[in-house]
Amino acid sequence: MITLPRTVRVWAYGRPVDLRKGYNGLVGIVENELRSDPMGGELYLFVNAKRTGCKVLLWDGTGLCIFMKRLERGRFADLWSDGSGAPVRLTSSELALFIEGCALVGKKMLSPREVMRNELAVGDRV
Asked: Rounded CA gap, 8 and 26, in Å?
């Protein structure tokens, strides 16, 4: 199990991927299609067309890592059912649920949104 802080951004690629791709193929998708830096500390989730396998690409500070999982029964959640091909933003908790096979990931918000710091309103100053 990979333990991640909640602040880590996770991007699920919005289309099926041939999971025979290795480091270079997945990095190419991140750079060319997602227009992102694969060494920027974010995680990238890729799922095959049958939704029985997934890979997670991450930079750990010293090198690229790929974690993969194949389900023996069932399918992963359908993250690209809307047909747009847009990446789906997940929290680290949602990534963990996705990898466990939760069907609701990407369909319903499962984690509270990030709390953003706002400055308190200041009364009229004279």
From this structure: 19
Residue 5 lies in a domain: no
Return the structure tokens found at 59.
Answer: 């930079």
HEC secondary structure over the chain: CCCCCCCCCEEECCCCCCCCCCHHHHHHHHHHCCCCCCCCCCEEEEECCCCCEEEEEEECCCCEEEEEEECCCCCCCCCCCCCCCCCEEECHHHHHHHHHCCCCCCCCCCCCCCCCCCCCCCCCCC
Amino acid at 42: E
Expressed as residue numbers, the domain containing 35 is 10-100
Give a yes or no: residue 54 inside a domain: yes
32 part of a folded domain: yes
- Please determine, for residue 90, whether its predicted confidence score (pLDDT) is greater than 70: yes
Render pLDDT for 58-73 as a digit per residue (tens, 0 to 9).
Answer: 988 899 999 999 999 9
| Domain count across the chain | 1
pTM of structure: 0.79
